[in-house]
Predict the structure.
Amino acid sequence: MRYTGPKVRLSRRAGVPLTRKAVRYFEQRPYPPGEHGRKTNRRTTGDYGLRLMEKQKLRWYYDVSERQLRRYWDLAVRKSGASGAELVVLLESRLASLVLRAGLAPSIYAARQYVAHGHISVDGRKVDIPSYLVKPGQVVSVRERSRGMQPFVAAAEGVYADERIASYLSVDHKALTFTLAARPEREQIVVPVDEQLVVEFYSR
């Protein structure tokens, strides 16, 4: 199941801020949540615990369920490239992930909601499946009837955009549209996870 509780709590459990909003909170309380959070020593975690946490961080970062992540892992293993890199590329190619990366949403949770509620189209057709895998050359945009909504007015002003847009995206914030210009490469994807530990977790 996907986690639906407080999102900042996930960042504190993971040991890294997983969302923009979490950065400020994490700086104030960089220790795990709970009554004994201050006394927890992350360095004493065993090998299995480290690998498990990296896998969980990847899940939380992209807001996918355990079953979904396992399915992406099975797909990644069948590809010719390094399994860990292929796994991250698949997750990054999800429609919800790219809506976030393009600056059309403030968080992965909002991006998922925008897609699920039918506000996003791909090549002019409504797509309400957050896990939809976008292919290079496809054009993603906010649907005309949704553009007057406050979150998309803010997105058009570049409020949610990163300082540097990912090189595999061609984005027009004013038009609320972007194109996946090329297949993402692992070295282009900024994600606070060591995917090799995820590979070791699934290969054990």
In short: The mean pLDDT is 87. The two ends are 22 Å apart (CA to CA). Strands lie at 120-122, 125-126, 139-142, 169-172, 177-180. The longest strand covers residues 139-142.
